[in-house]
Design brief:
Shape: globular
Mean pLDDT: 93
Strand content: 5-15%
Order of helices and strands: HEHEHHHEEEEEHHHHHEHHHHHH
Low-confidence stretches: 173-177
């Protein structure tokens, strides 16, 4: 329970957690992070009037896995080498994860020339971090490198000609210049009960800074509309829309919510040049969390206050669970994001801490073990599966039904259940990622 004497301090921290873990990004966040890293290193050479001769990308398994098959904006190109090439050639580091939002055809052509000439090399990192990128760019007269670790935008070192010109000792900074609230701190500040109580009783949507939630509504719905209108990837959302139209299923709130979310993921994974508001480092997770909750809110005709409170619950639950998994994992992030969405939708239907805890128990009892085999067009199918399960879990929860504490890794207390599934992920991720990446690299 939240201590009302400390609510001002608690509120400030929770709102910071929300803002720091939701941000705008163009394209899949892993290739965008590679492009950003390359743009920073290339920028150092450009300051010296040097030109790019070769590029080397040293990246962790999780980064490579998620960057290999995701579409890059404004093109049909995919891959780590293209992401590094266009970031170095074109990217403006001031745009951070939106570094690729105005890439030109000639930038891809220039990157392709370097790739064909064998001037862009990609290697699997031996560094221990799950999220690690080091891009080394060699010019005619100088060499520069940039290293990102632990978070998609957390630059830990920049070197020029072997000398460090910037180091932040691994402490991530928010856009305001404050140090990020760490995953460990998030786990200490939040709990499921605290999140629901905070949003229900203390969040004032008319006074508190919830601009990022409002951006998520506008930006993520825009890419959803794009995905439903045009052919992207597998077209899961578009096909679902056609199925609903043909059978006159327009009254189905659940199908409409899933349709909008999968349509957005279709477009994003195929490289549509539109931004999304991401959650916990993933645009697909931002889509999966926000679009269904907002779709339900619209269909149910709830107040603005109820809508944004439900959206805040959905995002905070996902951030909280993800803080225990780590920013990247062998488990599919759509599962965690779907849990958040299910919790937000449950709140819209009158559920509070008890019912929301039941949703989490039901989801973990069902979808634990859905692996992440990289960011790619078929992610929309996993989002479909996650959201279908989330809505079923909500229906059971609202009826007072939950997976038994005697079943599998599910416990009586929801916090223990979350810790169990996170523990499975942390202890198994390295071995699972080794197997998956080996399969992807040796097709």
């Amino acid at each position: 329970m939240i201590n009302e004497q400390n609510i001002v301090e608690k509120k400030a921290k929770i709102l910071r957690i929300l803002r720091e873990n939701m941000y705008v990004a163009t394209g899949c966040t892993e290739p965008a992070a590679i492009s950003y890293c390359a743009s920073v290193a290339a920028g150092e050479l450009k300051k010296l009037g040097d030109t790019i001769e070769s590029i080397e990308v040293d990246a962790s398994k999780n980064i490579l896995k998620n960057a290999m098959s995701a579409g890059l904006p404004n093109t049909n190109k995919v891959g780590v080498n293209y992401a590094a090439g266009i970031g170095a050639i074109h990217g403006n580091p001031e745009n951070v994860l939106n570094v690729n939002n105005d890439v030109r055809t000639e930038d891809y052509d220039a990157a392709e020339k370097m790739i064909k000439a064998g001037k862009i090399k990609v290697i699997v990192s031996r560094e221990p971090q799950l999220l690690y990128i080091k891009v080394v760019i060699t010019g005619k007269s100088h060499k520069a490198s940039c290293t990102i670790a632990d978070d998609h935008t957390n630059i830990v070192n920049i070197e020029v000609d072997g000398k460090s010109v910037f180091s932040n000792e691994g402490k991530g900074k928010s856009q305001s210049g404050e140090e990020h609230i760490s995953p460990k701190e998030i786990g200490e500040i939040l709990s499921v009960e605290d999140i629901v109580e905070f949003c229900d009783k203390y969040l004032d949507v008319t006074k508190d800074d919830i601009d990022i939630l409002k951006k998520a509504e506008v930006i993520n719905f825009a890419i959803s509309e794009e995905g439903l209108k045009n052919d992207y990837g597998l077209g899961v959302g578009k096909n679902l829309k056609e199925f609903m139209d043909a059978r006159n299923l327009v009254e189905s709130k659940s199908l409409r919510a899933i349709m909008k979310a999968t349509g957005a993921a279709d477009a994003r994974m195929a490289g549509a040049p539109l931004a999304v508001v991401a959650n916990s480092g993933s645009g697909n997770q931002g889509i999966t969390i926000n679009v269904p909750v907002l779709s339900y809110a619209m269909d149910m005709g709830v107040s603005e206050e109820m809508k944004y409170k439900a959206q805040a619950i959905a995002n905070l639950i996902s951030i909280y669970i993800k803080s225990k998994f780590g920013v990247l994992s062998a488990f599919c992030g759509a599962m965690i994001a779907s849990i958040g969405a299910g919790c937000g939708i449950t709140y819209l239907h009158g559920g509070r801490a008890k019912e929301i805890s039941f949703v989490i128990q039901n989801m973990i009892g069902t979808l634990t073990g859905m692996i992440c085999d990289g960011a790619k067009p078929d992610c929309s199918l996993k989002i479909y599966a996650g959201l279908q399960t989330a809505i079923l879990s909500m229906n059971f929860a609202l009826e007072g039904k939950r997976v038994s504490k005697d079943d599998g890794i599910v416990c009586e207390n929801v916090e223990n259940t979350i810790n169990n599934v996170a523990d499975v992920s942390v202890k198994c991720s390295s071995d699972v990622d080794d197997v998956i990446l080996s399969m992807m690299l040796n097709k």
